[in-house]
Design goal:
SH3 type barrels; 3 domains; 8-stranded mixed β-sheet; 5-stranded antiparallel β-sheet
Length: about 625
């Protein structure tokens, strides 16, 4: 198959306002100097006007040289004109610079490319980047971004030889020039798509990263340890309070946070408006294609050495900035998805009854929490006060005496849905941006007195802590696994289109610096896609910023339980810590840290932490 000529039927040689230059025929673009004829300022009839060239800051680094033959070339950091010859495809450029055409290029093309800087060319072809034509702000939209197939066989060789040459006639055994050949006015030269030159940049020897199974290995110009939990394969998003109290959205790479607002503005990215505010809200609402493009673009920034002088000043040490809630929580829903946790709680609170309610294995049970009390990791948690029933039956009011934790995982909704529509389990990745860790602080004494008959209320609404970093779903491709077996079989809407995959996350809970539990998230009875399907099965709409939690994560073994209610048997068997102190429930000054990690192509990634310290109740 031959590449189609880039001209519409009946098109002339003039400017095509809808499709840009090159839409009528394959005349090569030239620089403004090359377009001038020998006449007194007249434009040559053999060339056409090109759109005004866009100027960009020339990257500094290896391969950028000053050309002494060009009086206007200022070398490093210079402003360079960038009219691109059609022989160069957008994904084969050197840091937004033109690439020298290969053998067979016409004299005009070589003349244009001699004015560019030199690039490092390797023997092998450079691998294609993910969605290159969408990431390149200077791409040439009117040219195909794919190489043409090579002509094969005698017929194709003759067809190429006689293609569009005036005066040629049908040769024995060969075709006559057809309509498609007549449309391609290349004067026998191969079209611009055939003149690709594959260029590969030298990369610094830093930590290797693969984009996915079987993908190419890329490295960063940052110094990262081999076991770095926030490497290129992760890139979680958050928000911090920078200088002068200004809040900015960031992406984390190693121990640094990259200011996305300043970086996108500095590099004139088309995605800059998404990060102009102080949160990730516009970015979350942009949808899946934009999430993937931005992730690939950030990876490109952090792996191409030419961006180092521009981005290095925008890196902030994570230890020196204060994290803030990275998005606006629209609604908060908490589920009860762990069979082990539900069974343990049932046996503790109802020792003479059934551990699970009759509906538990038929549908995910949940409740709506309070979005306004969701706080970022590191925020102190004030001990709540409320009503409780004493052992002698009297009703009292005061600070909670049985303050507990619940180690959970939550997902953040990016793309919303229409009111009255359902979101299938298989559409989970289309609506969910990423996941984070969550601690659902619980006042067990307040909860026990109020939850009949409508469920939790003041015993849980006083505070819910979430981790500062949101891990995008694209970073968790290697962490999905088969879900636990279910009996009875769930109704079709809970399984349709997804196979109900589970996430294999290793969670760790610490109390005052001592690890007390390792809950396994892969053992959850109801999976995250099923929670989303059940949440919307009645037509309830999703909104950008919805936070949906899994419920307490617990395994079957005692060291896998995710709450003090289980670990201490409702306070009857207190934990003995390394310093000799005992804990049935939390005391003032106690600090709880929940961390987690997940499998990744290069090892494991860390999901950050959710940390909170208990302070005394308000007077």
């Amino acid at each position: 198959m031959r590449p189609r000529a880039h001209r519409r039927r009946g098109g002339g040689s003039g400017w095509d306002r809808r499709r840009g230059p090159g839409a009528g025929h394959h005349r090569y673009l030239r620089t403004p100097e090359a377009r001038r004829s020998r006449g007194a300022g007249r434009l040559s009839t053999h060339t056409r006007r090109t759109p005004r060239a866009r100027t960009v800051d020339a990257p500094t680094g290896a391969g950028v040289r000053r050309d002494p033959r060009r009086p206007g070339d200022r070398g490093r950091g210079a402003r360079v004109e960038r009219p691109r010859p059609p022989a160069q495809a957008a994904h084969r450029q050197h840091h937004r610079r033109r690439v020298l055409p290969g053998v067979g290029a016409r004299r005009a093309d070589r003349a244009v490319c001699r004015r560019t800087t030199r690039v490092q060319v390797h023997r092998g072809a450079a691998p294609r980047r993910a969605a290159p034509s969408l990431l390149d702000p200077a791409r040439t939209p009117w040219l195909s971004q794919h190489r043409a197939r090579r002509p094969r066989g005698r017929l194709d060789r003759q067809r190429r030889h006689y293609r569009g040459r005036p005066g040629r006639t049908r040769q024995p055994g060969g075709p006559a020039p057809g309509r498609r050949a007549q449309q391609c006015r290349c004067d026998g030269h191969p079209g611009p798509v055939r003149l690709l030159r594959h260029v590969q940049h030298r990369r610094p020897d830093r930590r290797a990263h693969r984009d996915g199974p079987g993908a190419r290995v890329v490295t960063s110009w940052l110094e990262l340890a081999d076991d770095e939990p926030f490497g290129l394969e992760h890139l979680p998003y958050g928000a911090v309070e920078g200088p002068a109290g200004r809040r900015v959205p960031v992406v984390r790479i190693g121990p640094w946070a990259l200011d996305l607002s300043a970086a996108s503005a500095e590099l004139s990215s088309s995605h800059a408006p998404l990060f102009a505010g102080g949160s990730l809200d516009p970015f979350l609402a942009a949808g899946g294609p934009t999430w993937r493009r931005v992730r690939a673009l950030i990876t490109h920034w952090l792996t191409e050495a030419a961006y180092r002088p521009l981005l290095e000043p925008l890196l902030m040490p994570v230890a020196e900035v204060a994290s803030v809630l990275p998005f606006t929580v629209a609604d908060y829903v908490d589920f009860y998805a762990s069979e082990a946790h539900a069974t343990n709680v049932g046996r503790i609170l109802r020792p003479d009854g059934a551990a699970l309610s009759p509906n538990w294995k038929h549908l995910p049970i949940g409740y709506h929490g309070r979005a306004g009390t969701v706080v970022v990791s590191g925020t102190d948690v004030r001990r709540p006060s409320g009503q409780a029933r004493a052992t002698d039956g009297t009703i009292t009011f005061g600070p909670s005496r049985r303050l507990d934790i619940e180690a959970e995982v939550a997902f953040v909704v990016g793309t919303g849905s229409e009111l009255g529509s359902r979101v299938a389990a298989g559409a989970f990745a289309e609506h969910v941006f990423g996941i984070c860790l969550l601690n659902d602080w619980s006042a067990r004494d307040i909860q026990a007195w109020e939850y009949v008959p409508l469920g939790p209320f003041l015993g849980k609404s006083f505070a819910t802590s979430v981790s500062a970093w949101i891990t995008p779903l694209d970073a968790l491709s290697a962490a999905w696994t088969a879900a636990a077996a279910r009996d009875p079989q769930p109704l079709p809407y809970l399984d349709e289109g997804s196979g109900s995959p589970a996430l294999d996350l290793a969670i760790e809970v610490s109390l005052n610096g001592e690890v007390i539990s390792h809950p396994p998230f892969a053992s959850m009875y109801w999976t995250l896609p099923q929670l989303l399907a059940h949440l919307t099965v009645n037509g309830a709409s999703l909104r950008t910023g919805d936070l949906v939690a899994s419920g307490t994560v617990s395994g079957r073994e005692p060291h896998e339980w995710g709450s003090l209610l289980e670990l201490t048997r409702n306070g009857a068997a207190p934990l003995t810590l390394a310093d000799g102190t005992r804990r049935g429930f939390l005391q003032d000054g106690d600090e709880v840290v929940i961390t987690a990690s997940a499998r990744a192509p290069g090892g494991r990634i860390g999901l950050g932490e959710v940390r909170g310290r208990i302070v005394s109740a308000a007077v």
